[in-house]
Amino acid sequence: MNVSRHSRRNFLKTAGVVSAGIAAGSLSMARCANAAGSDIIKVALIGCGGRGMGSLLDRFAVGDAVKVVAVADLAKGIAERAATALAKMEDKKEMIALNPDCVFGGFYSYKKAMEFADLVLIASPPAFHPDHYLYAVEQGKHVFMEKPFGIDAEGYRRCMKANEIAQEKGLTVCAGFQRRHEKKYLEWISRIHDGEIGDILSTSVYWNCGGAKVRGAREEGESEMSFQLRDWYFFNWLSGDHIIEQHCHNIDVGNWIHGKGNPLAHPVSCVGMGGRQVRRTPRFSYNECGNIFDHHYVEYQYVDDTVMHSQCRQIPGCWNSITEKVVGTKGIGQIGWLQPKEGKKWEYPKNNKTKGPYAQEHIDQAEAMRNGKKLNDGWFAATSSMIGVMGWMATYSGQEIKWDDAIAQGKTLFPYDKELTFDMEPPVMPGPDGTYEHAVPVPGRYDPFDKS
């Protein structure tokens, strides 16, 4: 659902007629299942924005027998745009079997699209991931899902339930934590775990950058729900804040190092601080700032007293860094190199010609699907996402957060059990001044365990 401002223009107009079209029974479902052949993997794309289409193209690049048979997006217009783009891909026509009747829109369109697939690619906004993932494995589908795996404790619990179902059914689950499939990271962390810089003392992980792209101004007559869905990144009930939506990559790498091969390893507690330094002053004539922070710092404590220091910031004009560092008893390192106190520095070869990580993750899943190998990235993906949840609980509240308490009692941001419509009031509404400042968490006042 990560698309340009122009492509979102008709979101309200198209979304408003989606449910009526489906309810009218005008869609011939039988026409969708036209990818014959036992060796062909039928693919459905859920979330047709830039990342979703990118994931689909990466899957095509594997080079095996696949056919995309259905697409779905919250906005029917976005799904139609994806279908039109696919129809123009002459070099990919052998991998496309998409009829117009198999292009779906609306909150529950994912269920219709998944019906015809063996493998579903999920790239919807983050808050929708747990339910999309859970439904897919309940229907016996293999899953590739973009990060994160949940934006709050309830999302984490649903993803963990989905992991169990996938494992019981022998389904493959690949997560969009592409560093886990990147050869440079695999070798770097393998060497750390082999003790090249001694025992781990701490890690530092960073995603400090200038900011995120906004989708566009509120349109005349547009519902609040539709506006927020277009600008989902800036509302914590949809994105989980950038500490999860973006920084989860680096958090996952740090946890991978501390976990020493255990996909369920996690910190036992954390403390942090954060705030909203520049987002409280809109840079445009409309308020695109939502209610997320623009900086977070969190210190995560592990049971062995090692520490992960986490920084993420989205403020222009500041020092930027997207990387991971490690300190051991016998040396230090940063992604791609290790420097022991005694001995030669190791560096990953710069001219090492390998598949990029975005392609490699799909290659790994395709191999697992076709050869009956086990692959369930969901365990570490849900765990690392929950670590990010702990982070916003700590920065929003200013309190120490324990892992067990966060899972059992953490505040729920997304209305999982409500029937969603485009004209309903979202969990966050603008105040009398038209801004969302009243809904921005205030440390010292915010209750991360509030169930109201």
Give your account of this protein's structure.
There is one protein chain. A hairpin with a 5-residue loop joins β13 and β14 (346-347). The longest helix has 20 residues, at 378-397. It is built from 14 helices and 15 strands. The protein has helices spanning 11-23, 50-60, 76-87, 109-114, 129-138, 153-169, 183-193, 224-230, 236-239, 242-245, 248-259, 357-371, 378-397, 403-409, and strands at residues 41-46, 66-73, 103-105, 119-122, 142-145, 173-175, 200-209, 269-275, 295-301, 307-314, 321-328, 331-334, 337-340, 346-347, 401-402. The protein has 452 residues and is of the alpha/beta class. The two termini are 29 Å apart. The strands form two sheets. It has a nine-stranded mixed sheet with strand order 14-13-12-11-7-10-9-8-15. The chain has a six-stranded parallel sheet with strand order 3-2-1-4-5-6, sandwiched between helices. It folds into two domains: 6-179, Rossmann fold (3-Layer(aba) Sandwich); 180-356 and 378-439, Dihydrodipicolinate Reductase, domain 2.
